[in-house]
Specification:
- By secondary structure, this protein is mostly helical.
- It has one domain: Multidrug-efflux Transporter Regulator, Chain: A, Domain 2 (Orthogonal Bundle), CATH 1.10.1660.
- Helices cover 62% and strands 8% of the residues.
- It contains 4 helices and 2 strands.
- A two-stranded antiparallel ribbon has the order 1-2.
- The relative contact order is 0.18.
């Protein structure tokens, strides 16, 4: 099983605030692996979210991209 990261570790490694993590989870962009725990793969997803948002994509469009990606 892969190592789970705490919210604090994800915040430190990604530079994303606790409020943004909560917002992204609420929108379904990221999925906690348990209460206050995240799989390491969330770091890749967060980087993509931040990059797309910085490129001008609104969160609702990023959400659609993620849903299509997950659907295969």
């Amino acid at each position: 099983m892969s190592e789970l990261l705490t919210t604090g570790e994800v915040m430190r490694l990604s530079g994303v605030s606790r409020q943004r993590l909560y917002s992204y989870a609420t929108l379904g962009l990221i999925q906690p692996a348990g209460r206050g725990r995240y799989a390491r793969t969330v770091l890749r997803d967060l980087q993509l979210i931040v990059d797309l948002n910085a490129s001008g994509y609104p969160l609702r469009e990023i959400r659609e991209i993620f849903f299509r990606r997950r659907a295969g």
